[in-house]
Amino acid sequence: MPLAQDQTIPTAAPRRGGARRWAGQASTAWLLIAPAVALVGLFTVYPLGNALWTSFQSSSPLLRATFVGLQNYQEVAESGYFLKAFQVTAGFTLVTVILTTVMALGAASLLRETFRGRRLLRPLTLLPWAVPLVVTGVMWRWIFNPQWGALNAVLYSTGVIDKYIPWLSDPNLAFISVAIAHTWSQLPLATIFLLGALQAVPREEYEAASIEGAGVLERFRFITLPNIRTVLVIVVLFEVLMGLTAYDITYSMTAGGPGTATSLVSYFTWSEAFKQLNFGHGAALAVIIAAVALVLITAILRALPRGALSEDQA
Amino acid sequence: MTRRSPVARVMLYLGAALLGLFTLGPFVLSLIASVTPETGLLSFPPDWFRYGFTLDNYRYIFTGEIPQSFIVRGDIRSMISEEILQVPNAIGNSFRIAFVVMLVNVAFGSMAAYAIARLRWRGRNAVFNFLLGSRLIPAVALALPYYGIVQGLKLLNNPLALVLIYAVLTLPLTVLLLTATFLRIPKAIEESAQLDGLGAFQVLRRITLPLAAPGVVGAALFAFMLSYTEFLFALLLATGRESRTLPVSLGIVSVNPDVSVGLMHAAVIIGILPVLILAVPIWRFMVQGLSEGAGQ
Amino acid sequence: MDERELYQEALAGRLSRREVLRRGLALGMAYPTIAILLAACGAQAPGGSAAAPGASQAGAPPASVKPNATQLDFVVWSYSVETIQANIKEWEAQDQAATVTLSDYPWNAYHETMVQRFTSNTPTDVLYNGGDWLPEFAKAGWVVPIEDKLDFAKYRDQIVGYALADMTYNGKAYGLPYYADIVSFIWNPTVAKKYGVDRAPDTWEDLAGMATSMQGKGLDKPVIWEFAQTLPTSLETFTAMVMSRGGELFDEAYDPIFEDPSSPGFQHLEFMADSVKKGYAVISPHETDVAKAMNTGQNAFTVLYNYNLAALNNKGTSPLAGQFELAMMPGKTHETLGFAKFYNMTQMAVDRGDDATKAAARFIESFGGAPTGEYTVAKRWAVEKGLGFGQLPLFDDADVQKSFATWVDVAKLKEQEKIARAKRQTVWTGIWGEKMRVQLGKALAGEVSVADALKGAADEARALKTQYGA
After folding, report:
1. Rounded to two decimals, what is the model's pTM?
2. What is the pLDDT of residues C188-207, one digit of tens each?
3. What ipTM describes this predicted complex?
4. CATH for A80-303?
5. Interface of C with A (CB under 8 A)
């Protein structure tokens, strides 16, 4: 395993002051983590508490706030918008996770090989990550625009198509378009993670396997996958989180349309809280999304080899 | 170096070309748009280069000089966005904020990661899970309370508010990355330092951090990028013109009727140029830092 | 100095705005051309702000405001903020008793950021407001009527009907107009002619026939609709078209009247859904996208806020500039929607006391009214940016007419504006709009039937009415 074992601490030789090694590790530890925890704590505990509290109230600046228990949750869950939005978001997350992971694996495998131009290509594949999502939305909106977009113009002038394609005005094409744009923005990070993991796989294992006659697929399944499992799981986890909370790109490109083809749960939540002034609903939705994310992430983390992430080795 | 069959070679270069095209295509297109007159970009059937190229858009953003097409074609309206002139200023704001957040992350993040990776104490797992779990709360649930907190601290329209919030958003991931990084460093060197009587802080500063440099730089860069590109809280909390960040500035002009396609993309290119230049040379640190350390 | 030298000097930032104005006038240049030069040299000033030395009066050193000046917080959305700042500077110099701090938010997040500001009591004294949010903000107690704070009587008759209606809640007027505009039917006669159509449609059915015949001659999508679930403008353009059929979405009691298949609302949604299904219309999510699409010549008819016509005919950026025209709304009565955005005073300003209230009132009057007898600020928006106006006297102003004539047929615009009216709105109609737009979107995309969509919207309206009271 590439991870270093956490060894037991050897008995210390006598040191200055005669104290045991960092007597009271706890106090040192708390001192070290104090700034980070304080900062995160202030900005987490209060808002979460506030959100939970609000989710149990019928709360709006236009009406008196009253306690309504789980009514907000019920209304939200039964609302047609919610179901459709979750459906679309689930589909979007699934598609983008698969697309991103597969493409990143491909890209990472590619970049692991040596070839002419690799030194140039590698840093350049990082670029989409440097772009704010709202800008990504602007760039891809122009590319996919049905009437004056870049893609249509390029395809048309090179004779590939003889009629502009309605990228953003057809529900299915719109879904694919926003998925592609989202994947483009997520690809660099996933590729870097996987490239690092791939590079750590010992070459000898591959050589041994090919001597024994293992083909490309078998090498991948029995050597690559097990070795990169941890990082792969982390990448999938991250992409799931990104998919569930996606907002900027989609709304810039399609405003959730056509119809509700690209309407994600993130906008729906925002709309309930701030445009419809129903803070209760908004808070309930936020709690639901957080809960769903928590469940998904816990499930995904189960796929990790035991103790891989920061616990002591068994 | 393995021998490669001709088929494999073709596949390899084809794959590289496709990857390059997909990743870089949009940038090239944006660049082209930024120097092409709108009259060309909107032509149908498409004939983009009919009117040649122009740097008018860039000139306008940096100097406010109205593009030639407005004057030469005798246009009578001053209908060109004023907002887009704020973009260079916004870039500076974003950069400064992201830089400070990066420093905060390196400092606080490495301290916390060290405590989690190297020390034994009750509550270690709880704190770690707490930090990670804090990222699960959707932004919309945080908006009003964050606004309240920032207002209470009298930091509205102050870039410091964004520094605080971005630190909160980036620290968990930094701690995660650095914990993983620290765990991979052999303990031997640190332990001999402890035997020499160095305290925790000193070990961290003098030994662990230098050894973990690639990972630290990687985490720092990640924090920088996240802060530079964040939109939602920048929109809500610091929208005074002077303190406005780049994503918000670009978001505003993207829906402005007085902004042509070319002008918008000129702003986009200007906006991402600083980070592109930064990101490229640090690539190697990034990969090394996030990887398992090939051959270590 | 001749015109060319003036251009060069102005663009190089070597002249103050006052100088540019003076020389431009002396050379007999057209007002709009002077306006563009002013904007250009304003942008040259250090820091990119419009605080050029020429902002002060008569060559005197910059006016110093009294040390005890009241400070006002003014909140706007981000459109031409430098022009606003220039206007502010001029007012401060003339008023001498108050200073204004300006904050701006992006337009598409304005509503929610204002809600945040108010619920957290962030100091705000004057803000931009719109007819659709006024009932909400007034009911929540965040804003106050203007007619109690200044001599409104002298302005009441000078404000065009639909603007006054948009600024009124519970019988009281809440502000003075920033700008007012209508929804227009816009078309490209040149493109239409190319495909065999040489007049504007008289009814919507007429339009359907024309579009189908144009399709036959080779134009794939003659009609383009602006529609986005996320934008209030989409509901306004829809409402305008319903009005053109002589209808409304709500009656006086705020009950929905669009469920019946014979109602104008139902018929029009059916018409629009049909147009998409039959393939002669396409939907685009933003008005700026529609304007660009029209400029490719692939579409010939659309319905948008009128100021988009100025952008469409903008020679600086539009390939087909000059080809676009306004036509009367097709439909039985040809009516359309008129609306206004205005300056509103907040309860917070009033709570601060007499000085603040009076200062805010003076500020609002200077921007939306005519304390000197002339609507200078409104006129500036009209002439320089093509924004419509709510002040009747400006309709007859020569400069305004001259400037507008470059991008619209003024006579036709007047004719259309005469039969424009504001829509019925109350506390919950804004909130309902969010839900209605989702239903409209689904119907237009063919996800649900028109009947189902409108029934859903009507149910929601009734539920909200019960919850909030009419």
Report:
1. 0.84
2. 999 999 999 999 999 999 99
3. 0.82
4. 1.10.3720.10
5. 111-112, 115-116, 118-119, 136, 139-140, 220, 224, 227-231, 282-286, 289, 292-293, 295-296, 298-299, 427, 431, 434-435, 438, 441-442, 444-447, 456, 467-468
